[in-house]
Design a protein that fits this description.
Length: 141
């Protein structure tokens, strides 16, 4: 299943970033991207999730940080684990994928286009504020 999660995430490259967006047809923000991909596979219950909420859900599920990580694990950014502001899906030791480049003012497709805000593959350290990486246990592992 891990491979399928990553493959689905990769199909969304170029999908516009829209603040508060929760589906690929109208746009996704960072947590909306993660939630949509993980919900397709039944890995998150329905609800309105923030990056902080996704962290709290998975930190309870998997028991926190782990030293070795896999494709499909989650990388969180912010000022601390109590103040997470961004989440991405790990593709490799050095790459992540997620909705980025926008913010609270990215509310329309035109806003996203102007900002270059969309689902992208980036280097894991494209931001200097990584606060956690959580290993996600997939069914059957």
């Amino acid at each position: 299943m891990r491979k399928h999660v990553v493959n689905l995430a990769l199909t969304l490259v170029g999908c516009p970033y829209i603040w508060g967006g929760g589906n690929p047809w109208t746009g996704l923000d960072c947590s909306g991207f993660v939630v949509w991909v993980y919900q397709v596979f039944g890995l998150l219950p329905s609800g309105d999730w923030t990056a902080q909420g996704v962290y709290e859900h998975f930190s309870r599920q998997v028991g926190g940080n782990k030293k070795l990580f896999d494709k499909g694990d989650l990388v969180f950014y912010g000022s601390s684990i109590q103040h997470i502001t961004h989440v991405m899906v790990r593709l490799s030791a050095t790459l992540v994928i997620g909705a980025s480049g926008g913010g609270r003012s990215t509310l329309t497709l035109e806003d996203a286009r102007r900002a270059g805000a969309q689902v992208k593959v980036k280097g894991i350290n494209y931001r200097s504020d990584i606060v956690a990486t959580l290993h996600v246990t997939f069914p059957g592992e």
